[in-house]
C-alpha cells in the first residue's frame, strides 16, 4: 500500500467520471480513474454489465446540448444520436483529453475505507492506495427497483427488468405488460410493439408527453428559444402545453389521466410515438396493477389483461457497495448530499453525476468538473475558501427546485439544472478564485 499525496481517485468511467477527470487533468491535479469494465462508457457501454442500452435506443436529449461545447459531436450525427454514436463520442472525448492515460480498467473498487484524513481504496485487481480525495461517479442506474410493496398474487409468466432488455426479439410474439411511465418505460413499450403479440402499458399517474421535434427543431431547443417571450413562467408553460396539444401530444385526448402537477414539476417524457401507438391500438394504456392471478394482471379499475411477460421499467436504486452505508448521513432513503454532490458530514469525498435534470450532458459537465477542480485545490491548500464552504454546506439550503417536483423516489434526485449549476458556480467561487473560469465561459 502506498500514499498518493494531492492525488484524486475517481470511481467510475462513465460520462461524468470522464468529464471530471478532464477538468482535474487540465487544472494540474494528478488523477487515477478506476473503471470496473474493460473500457469507458458507463450505461452506454452495451457490451458491459453496466450497459443499459438496447438495439433501437436513441438519446432523449438532442445533440446540441448533449455535446460539450468545446468538443462538438461530428456533423454527421443526427439531432438525436443512437447509443453507439454516443459511446463513440464519449470515448473520443476521453482520448482527446488524456483520460485514457490515467485510467485503470477491469478494476472494480472492492472497498473504500477511511484511514486518518485519507481514503484507502482497494480493487479486485489488486490496487491498494491511499487518497486524500475521492470522487464517486459510479452512476445512477445501479440496482434495479421494483414496485414497493410488491403486487400481490402469483404471476406465472416471465419477469424482466429494463436493465436486461436488449432487443425487441426478446418479446417477439408475446403478450407484454410494461410497468412504468418514465422515458425507459415509454420507449421500450414502443419498441416492444414492433414484435410483440400485444403490449399493455401500466402507469400510476398522468404524464405530459413531449414530442422530440416542434417546428422542425428538437423540442428542448425550441423551448429554450422561447426565452422571455411571455411575462411569467406560468404563461410560458401554458403556451407550451397549447402547442403540444395542437401537435397531438395531450395524453387526455387518448383517454389517459390528466397530470396533477405543472409541466415542469417532473422529469420530461420525450417520446414522439407512444401516443401514436396508443391511437393505433398497438399499445393499450392501463392504470396501476392491483394483483396477479396466474398469467392475468388485474388492474385497480377492475379490468384484466392476459400477459406472458411483465417488463418492469421502475427505475434503479443508487448503490455504493464499496462504502459502509453508516459513513454517510441519510435523508430518507438517499444520502444527504449538499448540491446533490457533497456529503454534509464528510469533507474528502464527493459524489458527482447523481442528479436527474431536464437537460443534456453538455449543459453541465464542465461546471461540475470545475467545481471539483476548485474543491480539490481548496482541500489540498486548506484555503480560507474551503473553511467558508465547509461551514456553508452544513447550514445553507439552496433552492434547487426540491420542493417543486412531484413526490417519488426518482424525484428526490431531481434538480432544476440551471439553479443547480448557478449555485455550483457560486460555491466554486467561494472555494477559490479560479483562473479557469474564463475557460468555462469560452466553452459555453
In words, what does this structure look like?
It is a single chain. With 444 residues, this protein is of the alpha/beta class. The protein is 28% helix and 22% strand. The chain has 11 helices and 28 strands. A 5-stranded parallel beta sheet has the order 4-3-2-8-28, with helices on one face. It has a 5-stranded parallel beta sheet with strand order 11-22-12-13-18, with helices on one face. α1 crosses α8, α8 runs parallel beside α10 and α9 packs antiparallel against α10. The chain is globular and about 65 Å long. The two termini are 41 Å apart. About 1% of the residues have low confidence.
Distance between the termini: 41 Å
Mean model confidence by pLDDT? 94
Oligomer: single chain
The assigned structural class equals: alpha/beta
